[in-house]
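Sample 3 of the quickstart, ligand S-adenosylmethionine:
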Amino acid sequence: MCGSGTLLIEAAMIAMDLPAQIFRKRFGFQNWNNYDADLFSKIKEFRINRVRQFDGKIVGYDIDARMLNAARMNVEAAEMEDVIEIKKQDFFESKKELFPLLMVFNPPYDERISINDDDFYKKIGDTFKTHYPNTLAWLISSDLEAVKKIGLRPSRKIKLFNGKLETRFLQYEMYEGTKKVHKLEENK
Ligand SMILES: C[S@@+](CC[C@H](N)C(=O)[O-])C[C@H]1O[C@@H](n2cnc3c(N)ncnc32)[C@H](O)[C@@H]1O
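Result:
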């Protein structure tokens, strides 16, 4: 559910120790009277040259062709094609392909993107349980009722605001056939 790829690109930048917005063409402070263009280009060059080697793999799935196109364009603009792969893939039909795996995603929620399927969040939980054993998943959503349908107890809950929308950033831990998943299910 990578949409236009923001989370993928930010994750790659953090992994490579690149400052946010480093590739932006123009900043407001460049209009200030005391703006020092030489100093800024030195700092920028220094940060780009000390980029950290990143050997991991970042993969984004989405089902919407327009989103996939936007994500590919954004990844290309950030020059991250070597580390980020974008795939057309329905999450509900996906299986764990990377080992170990950390998932971070923000599924659609009513305020921004309508979901026609009442069971959408239940299907996320079912996919977690059946196809993503031994995985840590972080999920961000403002649909506080829908997240309950995931059917797993989050191991961490962080309250955030996305503009005016109260939002939760929730961590789920899935283990393969261990008491943990069963315990989580018992507590539903
Ligand atoms: C809230 S948006 C994600 C926004 C994203 N963080 C960004 O930077 O643009 C949710 C995304 O989930 C995608 N989506 C919905 N159902 C999906 C499914 N079954 N499998 C994969 N992606 C899905 C939608 O196409 C949409 O792009």
